[in-house]
Amino acid sequence: MTGASTQEGTHRALSLALLEWLDHRDERTETIDETLEALADHRSRLLFDVLTNHERELTLPDAAEEVAQREDDRPITELSAERIANVYISLYHDHLPKLVEVGLLEYDQERDLVAVCRPTT
């Protein structure tokens, strides 16, 4: 089996598992599509994971630092200010708006704070 066919098998297995899981969900198709689209990019998933793990609001610059650390698998002291600024800009313009729109995150632009949306009861 070649590397490409191994990867295709992995994609197939993941797709089948995801479809099986989705088959037992009650959410509207549009909700599922919007959520999957918002989490389609690795950086979006990292941001959501960072905030979920902290269980409190963070400043977007702090979140950007942690996302950059995870992406590069290096300590903050080894990351350039330019690298972190690029991650911040990407989060602010591309990833954060999508995650806020689907209700996964909330953002206080005035204070530059981002947090996981708490479920309403």
What's this, in brief?
The chain has 121 residues and is mainly alpha-helical. The protein contains 5 helices and 3 strands, in the order H-H-H-E-H-H-E-E. The protein has helices at residues 3-23, 29-38, 42-54, 60-72, 81-101, and strands at 58-59, 105-108, 113-116.
Can you offer a commentary on this structure?
The protein is mainly alpha-helical and 121 residues long. It has a domain of 78 residues: Arc Repressor Mutant, subunit A. The chain is built from 5 helices and 3 strands; from the N terminus they run H-H-H-E-H-H-E-E. Strands 1-3-2 form a 3-stranded antiparallel beta sheet. The mean pLDDT is 91.
Q: Which CATH C-level class of the domain at 39-116 is it?
A: Mainly Alpha
Q: Assembly type of the shown chains?
A: single chain
Helix amount, in percent? Answer: 55-70%
Q: Span from first to last CA?
A: 50 Å
Write the layout of secondary structure elements.
Blueprint: H1 3-23, H2 29-38, H3 42-54, E1 58-59, H4 60-72, H5 81-101, E2 105-108, E3 113-116
Antiparallel strand pairs: 1-3, 2-3
Helix pairs in contact: 3-4, 3-5, 4-5
